[in-house]
Structures are given as C-alpha cells and as structure tokens.
Design a protein that fits this description.
Elements (H helix, E strand, L loop, with lengths): L3 H55 L7 E2 L16 E2 H4 L3 E4 L5 E4 L18 E5 L2 E8 L11 H50 L14 H50 L6 H28 L7 E4 L1 H18 L3 E6 L6 E4 H18 L5 E9 L2 E8 L21 H4 L7 H11 L3 E7 L3 E8 L1
Parallel strand pairs: 8-10
Antiparallel strand pairs: 1-2, 3-4, 3-6, 5-6, 7-9, 10-11, 11-13, 12-13
Helix pairs in contact: 1-3, 3-4, 4-5, 5-9, 6-7, 7-9
Length: 453
C-alpha cells in the first residue's frame, strides 16, 4: 500500500505537469498565432505600398503578376531576385479595381468576377494621390515556415522555451509537492505512532501541535483525548480499588463474627447481631449507590416526576432535619417565596440529593453556625441552594468533589463514607435536565446551587 506522502507527491506532480503542459501548449499556439498575424499585417502593408507603386508606375492593373522588388522592406520569404510572383507567394491574394471587378487573383478563374460592397468591407483600400485605385483582399493563410529561416528559428526558440519552462515547472512541482506532502503528513505520522503506543497501553501520549489548521486541531483534540483517557483509566483503577476497599471492610467484620459464631468461639448476643446488621446495611447502601450511578450512566435511572412547589420541597427538608440541627446547635433557615413556579422532579430522588448536601453541611458546620435553604426564580429557571458557613472546601479539592470515591480530607476517610454522595447527587440532578454547581471559601462556608430550567 502506497503511503499518503507518496500519493500527495504524485498528485502534486500530476497537477504541476498537467498545468505546465497546458500552459506550454497555450503559449505556443498563442505565440504562433500572434506571430502569423504580425507577419500578415506586415505583408498587407508591404503589398499595399508596392501595389500602389505598381499602379503609379504603369497607370493600370493590366499585366499584374509580378511586382518588382520594392524600395521599402520586403516580404518575409522569397527566392526571386527580379521580383515577387504574387500567385506563388500569396495563395489568398485578390486585387479589385475601382469598378469592384477582380483584376488579379491567386486563383485565375476568379479574375473578372464582381465583388460586392459587403465583401469589400474588410478589404484594404488602395489610394494614389487621394484617389481610390482599388482594394486589396488577403485571406488568412496558415504558414509553414522554413526551419532555417528567421521566422522558423524564432518559432523554434519559442517552442523550446515553452518546453523548458514546462520541464522546470514539473521539477519544481515534484520538489515542492514532496516537501509539502512530507510536511502535511508529518503530523499524521506522529498521530499514528502515538495511537499505536496508546494501543500498547502507554496512555497519555502527546504529539506536537505544528500548525493552526485542521491538522493542528486534530493534534490538539488527540492530546486532549489521550489525557482524558489516561485520567479515566486512572480513575477507573482507583474506583475499583476503592470499591474493593469499601466492600472488604464490612465483609471482613461480618466474616470474622460469623466465623467466630459458627465455631462457637463467640456467644451470640444483641450487640454482635446489631454490629452484623449495621455492616450489612453499609453493604446494601454501597451496592445501592453503585447501582444508582450505573443506571444514571446508562441513562436508565427511573424517575417518577411530578410538579411541586420549590418551597414545599425545602419545607419538607427543613422539617426532616430540624431535630438534627437542634442537636448540633445549628440554625436551619428557610428563604423561599411561596409563589415560585412549580418544578417537575422526582421528589424522592431529589430528597436524596438534598439530604446528602444537608448532611455534608452538618458535618462541616460548627456549633452556632447556620445552614440556609434558598429558592428563587430568575430568567425562566428556578434555582435552589444549600448554603452553610462552615469550614469550606480547600481550593485543590474543588475540581474533584463530584468525582466518585473522592474524599477531600483524611478525617472523612475514617467516617465510613463511600465518597459517592456528590457523584450521585450530580447524576440525579443531570437526569432531571438540571445543573449543580458549588462555590466555597475556606473558613467562610460552602454553597451548592441546583438550577432547573
């Protein structure tokens, strides 16, 4: 299989050669046509001057066959040193008298014929002392120039120059085409090599962006895709490790207790059964979270949607968490107008989102702090917020807080949290066609905003 560099070089060469040959042919034809026209115009002038001289010398057109050599310049070619034989030198020549009768013609049978005024329209008027003495008709006559004549040498030199130009243009097309093809395909070759390396498992391969055209855009997109693939692979590996870790902990506890109970090494009592129950609930919760994320990724998360007032949603949340807020000595506030437009949501799924946000706010808001649940309408959309004045989120953690199994601080990793809560929240909100965003500042608090169009 030929390389694309070879194909492009061949294409450039063919285009260059074709263009050069066409230009050479056109130049040759146009030059020869212009040269023949120049010679014919010169001959017409010469013939007119010498025909007038003949008439002035003899006073008649009788006997017009040979005219003497002129004092002014001669015709392009001749070999009769005593005069010019008009019939031999000019095949399309006619001389018409003042009565529009042909007095001389290269074809003798035309002599005596009458020429119409229309046919004399393009003829050359012959005048002597201000009086019309006749007309000269010289039809275009293709010339075959003698090779060694000045005219033949001139045309041969023109043809040689056109051929040389075509060859030089073809050589330039081949050289420049090869350079251009190599330059154009260099990025493609690098992309191919990088793709092969990625296929071998060397993720994150980057290629140099050499241009700002479509190939440059392709290289930029490839680099971005390669980095995204590397990050996604690392995230998948980390997620697999996190899942294994989160499953291993409760399974180890359950396995240890059940083995001890089975061997009779440990008597059963309500405390042990409660531990087993809590660990089982932990496993169920983790499995449910993973199933929710899997359904959301596949676009198959079941939603039972209904119209409801945003204030009603927040009032239910405030009532559900008011006791926990009192126990933590945190003020739970509500700020939502009663006449806000209704939103269409799955109430249970959205309650799961807000429960996660409020529990996170409880976790990082100190005693005496405040959590505010807000809702407002703006630009045809309804926004809902969970705002706290707690410890905030570190700037280096902000880009990753919605990632699965991400835990921003070591203390959180010890709480038994799976790190799936915010990932699930984003998936549920996006399944409703909404967006979720976060703004946070260390020491001043965090605000999560949900927006529904």
């Amino acid at each position: 299989m030929r390389s694309i560099t070879f194909k492009l070089t061949l294409a450039f060469l063919l285009v260059g050669v074709t263009g050069s040959v066409l230009v050479a042919i056109i130049v040759r034809q146009r030059t020869q046509s212009a040269f023949n026209q120049f010679v014919q115009d010169r001959e017409q002038v010469w013939l007119a001057e010498n025909l007038i001289l003949y008439y002035q010398t003899y006073g008649t057109w009788d006997g017009l066959t040979i005219i003497p050599q002129p004092a002014v310049g001669g015709p392009p070619s001749h070999d009769n040193k005593s005069g010019w034989d008009l019939r031999r030198e000019w095949a399309g020549l006619q001389v018409v008298g003042v009565d529009r009768t042909v007095v001389f013609s290269a074809e003798p049978d035309q002599v005596g014929n009458t020429i119409s005024a229309a046919d004399l329209k393009d003829a050359i008027l012959l005048e002597s002392n201000g009086e019309t003495i006749g007309w000269l008709i010289l039809s275009p006559n293709p010339r075959e120039w003698i090779p060694d004549s000045p005219e033949g040498l001139f045309l041969r030199n023109v043809n040689s120059a056109a051929l040389a130009s075509a060859l030089i243009a073809a050589a330039l097309a081949f050289t420049l085409g090869g350079v251009l093809a190599f330059t154009m395909t260099r990025s493609l070759r690098e992309l191919t090599e990088a793709t092969v390396e990625i296929a071998k498992g060397k993720l994150g391969m980057q290629v140099k962006v050499r241009t700002k055209d479509e190939l440059g855009e392709l290289a930029t997109s490839f680099n971005r895709m390669s980095l995204d693939l590397e990050r996604a692979t690392q995230a998948r590996r980390q997620m697999t490790a996190d899942i294994a870790h989160d499953l291993r902990s409760p399974l180890s506890v359950i396995g240890g207790y059940t083995e001890a109970l089975s061997d009779g090494k440990l008597p059963g009592d309500p405390e042990i059964y409660n531990i087993l129950h809590q660990e089982t609930k932990h496993l169920n919760r983790l499995v449910d979270d993973l199933r929710t994320l899997s359904l959301a990724d596949a676009g198959e998360l079941p939603l039972i949607q209904q119209e409801i007032s945003p204030r009603t949603v927040l009032e239910r949340l405030a009532a559900r968490h008011s006791m926990a807020a009192q126990q933590r000595q945190i003020s739970l506030q509500l700020d939502a107008a009663p006449d806000l437009p209704n939103i269409t949501i799955d109430v249970e799924r959205m309650a799961q989102v807000f429960d996660n946000l409020i529990l996170n706010a409880f976790r990082y808001t100190p005693e005496g702090g405040a959590i505010c649940l807000k809702a407002w309408a703006e630009g045809g959309a309804v926004s809902m917020q969970v705002q706290d004045n707690g410890s905030g989120i570190a700037p280096e953690d902000m880009p990753y807080i919605f990632d699965r199994f991400y835990r921003g601080d070591s203390a959180r990793q010890l709480t038994g949290e799976s790190g799936l809560g915010l990932a699930i929240a984003r998936s549920i909100v996006e399944a409703h066609g909404g967006t979720i965003s976060v703004v946070s500042e260390l020491g001043k608090g965090t605000t999560f905003t949900l927006r529904f169009s």
